[in-house]
Amino acid sequence: MKKRVLGALLCLSMAVSLTAGCAAKSESKPADSEKKTEKEEKTDVKADPVDKKKVYVSPDWVQSVIDGNQEESSDYVILECAWGEEADNPAYTEGHIKGSYHMNTDYIESEEYWNIRTPEEIEKLMADYGITKDTTVICYGADGINSADDRVAFTLLWAGVDNVKCLDGGFEAWTKAGYGTEKGSNKPKATDKAFGTTVPAHPEYIISIDDVKEKLESDNNFKLVSIRSKAEFSGETSGYGYIDKAGEPKGAIWGHDTDDGSYNKADGTTVGIDELEGYLKESGASLDDELAFYCGTGWRATIPFLICYENGYTNAKLYDGGWYQWQMDDSLPVQVGDPEGGKCEYTTVGNLSKDKAAK
Amino acid sequence: MTFAEILFLTGAYLIQYFTRKKMGMARYVIYKSQGWERTFPMETLKYTSVSVLTALTVLLLAALVIRRRQKGRLEVAMHIAMVILTALYGTYTYISSTKTMRAYYFISLMLGVAALLQIIKTGAVHMMRGKKRNEE
Fold this sequence. Notes:
The structure holds 2 protein chains of 2 kinds. Chain A has 11 helices and 15 strands.
């Protein structure tokens, strides 16, 4: 009898404690939901204004633009940048920054060498997206490593848009900051206003393959900086499934890859000019040299360019053709191996083996 | 249709699907297509292959009509499949291009192989029927 009573009391006390615990949890729930609601309803964000030349901006700044609290950016467009059509892009369809449009990187690149399209095509594209030179354009990609937004941002700066930003850390940073997203599709509103300047306003941002060839042979102050992986730089792999040959233009130096996070801080945001300077110093170059950044087809290389740009350096360029265009000409000189490491072979593209495509 | 033809038709669909979905696949397809255009006379190959397959299809159909008393249901079905595959290949190859479909050469090739396989099988049936008639 005693045991039964004790057992019943034990069960009762367990039930009471469980109920109390649940009650405690449910009492704390309203606070959590309030927090969530507070974040969702954060619609009057004020952030410090940033210089026009500043490229990498915080989620707070972008939200403050959306909230109308950045006066100079009242005319703005937000572009979610990725390869592929909108319907095939989960990065857009599964949720995007409110009001943003999808920008397929094929719209800015031509198929011949994956170089930036003609000035006429880019001007029309910008008009279709409602962009003039005075529009603030905010580009973003999936995360801080993804360079699709950097590629689009570079193209717009080259074309002549005055105020171009990249959301630092990408959509990942946006969702971490707790700002709103939406589904559905936004169609850009075309403008019939003139762009406002000749396109490209900054042709000097791009250096052609012919100029690279000439400068590598004759200009000691010119540094062709490879923004590729060590394996690509040393000729172990082309880095691409569709490029058979591996190597680098003869005379190129290594500036680290962006895809391995070398250009990102621990929080996913972009590193500063000091990091870039350090990478250049490793290869015997400096920010005072005439720098041309390149990679495979011109995406990764836009990141160090934009870092230079926002820090006021005007001696940086993008060699748009990259390894892809270089290896199409059998006569061009190449290096296979690490010139700094001592073991390096110098030959021409025509003598390279054709089994170095990335698997 | 046999497994091989279904495989080629499925392959054509998959290539197109992944060309839309994966940048690496799209660029690979474009790179290869550009290489083929530099190396081979693609327009000439296109017209020649469509003409040859169409001619073979017409010949086999004519043979079927001539021997109409000896045809069976299976034979008729094979000819229908042959006409469908040849028509599919010819229509696609003529109306499409790398401008409308990046994987154009790949898809055209796969459709062409599927059509050719069906022509070969149908031709083999004709030869077997002819041999059987001679033996009789």
